[in-house]
């Protein structure tokens, strides 16, 4: 079974802090993703990466950055946290597409509160 | 998470009955469609997928139907059980690199 592990289930930070959310997958997947999930808005893609040191902006990248130094690890960084970044953050991974289509496998999320 | 089910349409089904969850997708160029299940406090879990060259695919107790003409996807769950209670999302995309998620339907199983 694919295992996607997010380092924290709950996190409380203060406005202006730099926040790191970590995600590790153990299935040698090429693709990794960061989403945020808010009531009424569903899942929205922040950033994704299809290879080490590669990244692409998703639909809502503002206020976030990412880092992928190793294949198994994908970090989401809030450069200067703001209250509107209070949300559930979900990490996912998948095999490379290769025209076949591959399902994304999700971690259990980090509920981040910015005070 | 715990708040995922808020503000969502809810389908209430008697235990043992069949459930049908519907999804309208927006991008007619999509070639891949997926259903996810999200239980309270957990991340979405992959259930079943279907490609645009198919109109039906069956899994264990689940069937996905695709109608490209009206851009409609449905998930049928046979003999619904209490453990099926969750929020169900459809997702669609092209090439799977980047998908769009629907907002979800909450399935409530009545014992």
Walk me through the structure:
The complex is a heterodimer of chains A (115) and B (111). Chain A is mostly beta strands and 115 residues long. Chain A contains no helices and eleven strands. In chain A, strand 7 (64-70) and strand 8 (73-78) form a beta hairpin. The mean pLDDT of chain A is 93. Chain B is 0% helix and 51% strand. In chain B, strands 1, 3, 4, 8, 9 and 10 form a six-stranded mixed β-sheet that branches. Chain B has one domain: Sandwich (Immunoglobulin-like). The chains are: A mainly beta (115), B mainly beta (111). At the A-B interface, strand 5, strand 9 and strand 10 of A face strand 3 and strand 4 of B.
Main features:
heterodimer, A: 115 residues, mainly beta, Immunoglobulin-like, seven-stranded mixed beta sheet, four-stranded antiparallel beta sheet, 11 strands, globular, B: 111 residues, six-stranded mixed beta sheet, 51% strand
Structure, briefly:
The complex is a heterodimer of chains A (115) and B (111). By secondary structure, chain A is mostly beta strands.
Q: By helix and strand content of chain B, what is the structural category?
A: mainly beta
CATH classification class of chain A = Mainly Beta
The helicity of chain B comes to under 10%
Name the CATH superfamily classification of chain A. Immunoglobulins
What's the gyration radius of chain B in Å? Answer: 13 Å
How many domain regions of chain B? 1
- Architecture per CATH nomenclature, i.e. the level-2 architecture of chain B: Sandwich
> In CATH, what is the class of chain B?
Mainly Beta
* Inertia-based shape of chain B: globular
Counting DSSP E segments of at least 2 residues, the number of strands of chain A comes to 11
The fraction of residues in strands of chain A falls at over 45%
CATH fold description of chain B: Immunoglobulin-like
